[in-house]
Amino acid sequence: MSTYRVAQVTAAGGRFEVTEREVPRPGPGHVRIAVDACGVCHSDALFVNAGAPGVRFPLVPGHEIAGRIEEVGEGTYSGWRVGDRVVVGWFGGSCGHCTPCRQGDFIMCENLKVPGWAYDGGYAETVIAPADALARIPDALAAPDAGPLACAGVTAYNGLRHSSARPGDLVAVLGIGGLGHLGVMYAAAMGFETVAIARGAGKADLAKQLGAHHYVDSTADTSVADALKALGGARVVLGTAANAAATAATVEGMTPRGELVIIGADTEPLGISPSQLLMSGKIIRGHPSGTAQDVQDTLAFSALQGIRPMVETMPLDQADEAYQRMLSGAARFRMVLTTH
Question: What is the C-alpha to C-alpha distance for residues 31 and 129, in angstroms, rounded to an integer?
């Protein structure tokens, strides 16, 4: 029996170790993927630390998977072929029978199958995944770029394309990190007058390199809200920073009927009063990731516009080092594990 390697943790909060397992066969409706690359996302810590219900150990995380189909399970949609290049992101499949699924809102599936939670994830040489989780990788995208776009990329892209902003509108992206650097590039490519907001004057050059038309230093004497109002006010703010206070500080800088789209997770309350929203008709909403089709749209747009995530790669053997570097905030901006 042939084997493959995985990087796993055996207990909550544990360190990663690389071990071998027997290669499984895909069942009906599933495929076996030879993993070429897998992004290391901050959400992986939720599962590594047993912060989500039903987490089982040993755990193999990873939901930014890019690779090639090695085997197609019996009865699987015939459009998938051995050798097809595919990604699997946060959306790792849906149940198809809950109310959101029956309404066609698959990312809201009550039984959403997130890789590394519902089944073994991509910190491995092989993954078994449901066929409805697959998105095709354009030829122009390399696997280490495609992986992070299946989670961070689609989250930022979808958050913007489903917002109320139209080309020419002022759109602010709060944070230039794993999500935010992609948000700035997408906003500029979508034709928005793009404002990047981050801490310190030292990130201004990076913001301009990413395509931002304006940079706001959130540590400057002028408040973020006043800086946005001086530019005419933001029609949309894409909140990528995991900082509730910094997110709330943008609200007064939005136009009437402006929209705050939150994609950066924080457990602290926002601290926004109803009076800040009522008379100006402002909107606050959260935005989840996206379905496999959303991921495929993201990959196609990225290939068309020449957008690539900024990544640091490490081999699977160094999964623990890559994970710790992600946790420390030192990565610029996405850590990616490779198998070759």
Answer: 6
Q: What value does the CA radius of gyration of the chain take, rounded to a whole number of Å? A: 20
User: What's the CA gap between 19 and 304, in Å, rounded?
Assistant: 39
> Over the stretch 202-228, which tens digit does the pLDDT of each residue have?
999 999 999 999 999 999 999 999 999
Angle between helices 292-305 and 154-161 (to 10 degrees): 90
Strands (E), the chain: 3-8, 17-22, 30-40, 65-72, 85-88, 126-130, 135-136, 170-174, 193-198, 214-217, 234-239, 254-262, 283-286, 311-315, 334-338
Output the six-digit token pair for 302: 């990225």
Tens digit of each residue's pLDDT (9 = 90 or more) over 274-297: 999 999 999 999 989 999 999 999
Using CA atoms, how far apart are residues 45 and 66, in angstroms rounded to an integer?
20
SS3 assignment, position 83:
coil
β pairing state of 135-136 and 234-239? unpaired
pTM of the entire predicted model: 0.97
Q: Sort strands 126-130 and 135-136 into parallel, antiparallel or unpaired.
A: unpaired
- Kindly state the DSSP code that residue 308 receives in the 8-state scheme: -
Contacting residues for 58 by C-beta, under 8 A, at least 6 apart: 8, 9, 10
Say which residue the tokens 């009076």 belong to: 275
In contact, 123 and 61? CB cutoff 8 Å: yes
For residue 58, say if its preceding peptide bond is cis, omega within 30 degrees of 0.
Answer: yes
Tell me the two tokens of residue 210.
């990413």
Contact by Cβ (8 Å): 217, 204: yes
Whether 338 and 5 have beta carbons less than 8 Å apart is answered as: no
Residue 185's nearest CA partner among 170, 197, 200, 173 is 173
Give the Cα separation of 120 and 59 in Å (integer): 7
**H helix intervals, the chain:** 44-48, 99-102, 143-148, 154-161, 180-189, 204-210, 224-230, 244-248, 292-305, 319-328
